[in-house]
Amino acid sequence: MGGLGTGTGVPVVVDRLDRAVQVFLATHRPHWAVPLARAVMRLGTTPSGLTLCLVAGLVLVWGLRAWRAAATAVAALAVATVLAWLGKDLVQRARPPRDLALVKVGGWAFPSTHAAQTSSLVVAFVVAVALTGARRVVLAVAGGLAVLLVGVCVVFLGAHWLCDVLAGWLLGVPVGVLAGRWARRAGRAGRVAA
Question: Which tens digits make up the pLDDT trace of 153-164?
Answer without folding.
Answer: 888 888 888 989
